[in-house]
Amino acid sequence: MSFTTVAALAKDNGYAMVILIGGTSLYLLGQTEGRLTNDLALEEKRTWLHVRGPRSGISEAQRNADVQTIQSALDEWEDDDFDADECRTVIVTVMKHAGNLSTLAKMIERLRIPSAPVLIIDDEADQASLDGNAGSPKKPTVTKTYAAISELRDAVKLGGANHTFLQYTATPQANLLIEISDALSPSFVQVLEPGDAYVGGRELFLEKEDAHIRRIPTGEVDRALETQEGPPNSLRDALASFLVGIAADYSSGFAKQPKANRSMLVHPSRLTGDHSRLREWMERMKSDWSDLLHDDAELSAPEERNALFEILGKAHKDLAKTDASLPALAELASFLRRALIRTEILELNKGAPPVPWSRHFSFILIGGQAIERGFTVEGLTTTHLARSLGQKLADSIQQRARFFGYKRGYLGRVRIWIDDDTRAVFKEYAKHEQDLRSRLKPIAEAGRPLRDWRREFLLDPGLKATRRNVLARGVKQRQLSDDWLTLDRPALTGPDLEENRRLVQHLKSSLEMDEDDGHSERTSEQRHLISSPMPVSELLGILADARVADLDQRDLLYGAMLQLDAFSGEPGRTGRVVLMGKSSPRVRTIANGKIAQLYQGRNPRSGVPIYPGDREIMVRDEPTLQIHMLQSKDGTLLRIPAFALWVPQKFKVGTLVQSNL
User: pTM for this structure?
Assistant: First the structure.
């Protein structure tokens, strides 16, 4: 809806051409073309000229004719006999395929483009568009689709037109983390807000997960596929839930409404052989259940029929918890068989025809990659997602969430069967998405360039943000939990050293500090000053002023600060500062910029300790910043502040940081 609106605004503001690069499949391209045709009334309003771009089966003669047709529309923009609001805006739709894009670029090179600007829209911009060889120094050439997009943009520029390349995606991690100098690195960002009827990760996985999420036992589907014993119980339960729901739609008359649909989505794996087996199971259950729901089964198979109604009763009881309008199961009994018989089961893989939504009210769709990214499942209520997490790429896993969408009106019917690991990943992704949006919104609202944004956000270390091959520069992911961040490469010279010295002096004079408790026989070096509790936000301000010489350690410090910041708004979260040895010099070996051993150890090593060691000098449940004042053993370096940060378990959250060089 957003890019349809932007295309309309482009026309209203004098853009001569809009090029829409659709998905990587004909189905997704056709889905988008259909929406554009409907929403922009392309076949009704002759102020648009819609040209379908190059694709398989289009002859050279047709392409030549398209060039002439496009040129005739573009010429209007330079003709004084046409008012600006009369000029036709050309809208070209093309699949994201290197050959098609390259051919379109060659067609555009033949055009005389007026001075009016051009808009290029890249849908699903994180997929295929980016250079998949950026992260591999062994592959000096760029990937074909990336090269073809560059060729298309160059062709527009060659024609003398300014253009905007506008990227759209629900999972922008790759686009945000590619090299800033990359031609496809975004210069600005706009965070889209869904409408009130939208249901997403926050609601389904953070607020109401117990209402909508159901469990697939670990390995259940894989074992069933290996042993060929038949459909697993979770799949049977999912079908029962779907059947009860559509029977209610038949009972209410909703199933007879124009363009009404309900769907069940089954996603077992990426293997087409598994999809075929799942389809066999679903067809068999459909046939068996249809027989048992026939009145004759009361006499011919009473035990089996009763067992089926127990399954359906369980599903009905579950749905009734969230759908107050659900009729009693006895009232639905006469609709169950009809609803099941009229449900079409489709296996969707590469080359499969589009789903014939107008042909039936209810569908069961089975597939893998073909039903992930961008695929719209009309009226989806029931999902059985057993696919493994694979490489645990956050953006790829999120793209499987076809159960997100404008479902507020029938949210009570929505059920999602997933295993425990997948459930945990979606929970973590929901938190990550909220955090990422909160970091990008201020940039967007202030109209600042995206290069001003520090590339850091919360992300569980068990997940990778995106595929590594598109990232020329690596990222650092970490999660501190009852652990120390040791910054043992301190600033040794220059302004950073002076800043650290001033910071220590300021803390000594401004903080209320007391000597820590300990054994009376401790040495002066083992006696420290510890501050009173301070708000975590205040501790973050101190950390922000600390200077670290090493780039990698600076990124790790940013990551730790992200962890603390995630909890800084919660009441009662406090932190401490400890001046080790009361900031008197502690002698250490410093070689090649690194402290050989920052922490003093336990003394004695066995028996009752006089000193427990530096690593025990913290408040265990509060983030604690140790500040050590050092001098090198050879006497060449004096008054060198060094830092170490304790992060307790209750501040546990994963972070990702990428250096902005």
Answer: 0.88
